[in-house]
Structures are given as C-alpha cells and as structure tokens.
Amino acid sequence: MEKVADWQLKTPLQHQLTDWTNSALYKGMVEWAKIAKSPEYYNWLYNIGEKTNWQLGKRIYHADDHVVGLMYLEMYRKYHEKKMLKPTKKRLDWIMKNPSDASIKNFSYEKGNNCTDRWSWCDALFMGPTVWATLANVTGKKKYLNFMFKEYKATTDYLFDTNENLFYRDDRYFNMKEANGQKIFWGRGNGWVFAGLAIIMTELPDNYKERPYFEDIFKKMAAKLATLQDSSGYWHASLLDPKSYPAPETSATAFYVYGLAWGITNGLLDKETYLPVVQKGWQALVRAVHPDGKLGWVQPIGADPKQVTSDMTEVYGVGGFLLAGSEIYRILK
C-alpha cells in the first residue's frame, strides 16, 4: 500500500482537483493515512484542500461534483477546522431546500437533459449518498439521512436487477446484451455501488430505521459477486461475460475486495465464506502493481465494459486499492 500511495504522490494529477476521479483517490488516501506511519499523506490531502478552498465542484446537483466532500469531511474530523466543513454543508443544505425535480429515467448526456441532477446512474450511488451519510454523522443531524435514503431508494428501485442482484449502469442498458446473450452489468459500475454501501453503512447509526435496507442490498450483492470472481482472483469489466473481456480489471476488483472485507469486519458477512474471496482478490491486486508502484489493469473512464491492458492506470483505481488494503489491515489487526 505504501508503495502504491507513494507512486501516486509522485505522479501529477491529470484531472481537476475537485473531480470525481481524484475524489475517489482521496477517500482511499484518507483511509491509508489513518494507518500510515508518516504524516505526509495527510499533509498531501490538506494541501489539496487548501488549493480548492475546500469547495465542491461547480455543478450544483451533480453527484460527481459532491464526492470530494468525503475527503473534506474526513479532514474536518481530524483537524476540526470549520473551513473544511462549511462549503459541503452549505451545498447540501441548499439542495435539500431546493431538491431537483429531474427524472432519473431516459438517461442521456445530451445538452438540455438534466437527469444527472439526480442519481440516475449507478456510479452516483458512490459519489452522492456517501457524502450525505458522512455529513449526517459529522453534524449529528438525521435530516441528511432522510434525504439521502429517499433518493437512494428511488435509484435502486429503478436500476437494481432483483434477479441478478446487480445494478444496471443506467437505463440505456436495460435491453442491451453482451456477446454471450447475458445482460450488461459493468464491473466498476457495480464496484461503485458496493464500495459506496460500505461507506454509507460505516456512517449510519446502528439504530437508524433504514439500516436494514442497505444491509439487505449489500448482502445480496456480496453473495452474487463472490460467484463471479475468476480463478486468478480478479473480476472483469463485464461481470456476466468475462470471456469477451478476459483481461483483469483492478478498479472493480479493488472495490469488491474493500466491500467484502468491510462486510467481514463489521459482521455482515461470514468470515469463513468470504475471507478466501478477499484474500484471493487482494493477492490478485498486488500482482497488478508494477515494480515502481503503479497499479495496472485499470479500465479508463467510461460507462460500460471496455478492454483493459496492464499499463492502464487511473487515480480511482489507486483509491480503490488503498480502500481495500486498509480494510484488510483491520481484519488482520
């Protein structure tokens, strides 16, 4: 983990500092910083917050521009500086008072379609609700959870396939099929949801009335995902058609390993059943690390399965790797 984290610190970030790509990295880096011996990782995150003035992205409603708030709230927990909290709280307060009336149906990136003002794609279930749940915990105000739950349920009712226990990326994929005739379930897309569930449930009060709802989805996904791991420990870009996408895909693998490890640590998943899956997955992730610390086999930015090579990397893959390793560390500890 230190090797991968250090490689990333030495590698200039290619996206805007408040971008969702970097924000996923920051969340993993925060969890690594909590167990690392050196303060340099917290220092790196603090400097990024100073550069962004602790602001979210510019799009008011878009979940991709909210997820950087995860890092800000974690830093607020550590340093208790109000500047780290205020912008995120201000944005979410405004949204709660002025909720979007956009439809989550008929997903499109075309100009004039405002479906992304709500969580209309499965990745958004990592980008948005995790911040709402964390803010609720930090402030002690359940109003954020109530808003989050309502929106989360709307998305899940629409995109979750109860036969496969997996999420469609968005409604464009409802009737599409892979080359083998199976439904299209994107590896990283479901990884976003699964990792997001672990983060959300970490923040939920034990007595929160809707907690069983999240636990149920998590357990169903975990059971399905465990059956889709290949013999070498990886998951693939397409969950139900790995033969068409035979290369490993480490961002999905990392998010699944993180979620499964979290489930074991928190008593939601049977250790005897799931620990071998976690161990095999972690060993696979480690094999994907280049000698210099670069994590390979990360599918580039997209919305559906694509081919991957060992030289491909991205910051969100590194974030997932650090999340996975940090949670496994807690099991071993």
Automatic annotation (TrEMBL):
InterPro entries: 6-hairpin_glycosidase_sf, 6hp_glycosidase-like_sf, Glyco_hydro_88, PolySaccharide_Degr_Enz. The keyword Chloroplast does not apply. It comes from the Bacteria. The keyword Hydrolase applies. Pfam families: Glyco_hydro_88. Keywords: Hydrolase. This is Rhamnogalacturonyl hydrolase YesR. It comes from Prolixibacter denitrificans. The lineage of its organism: Bacteria, Pseudomonadati, Bacteroidota, Bacteroidia, Marinilabiliales.
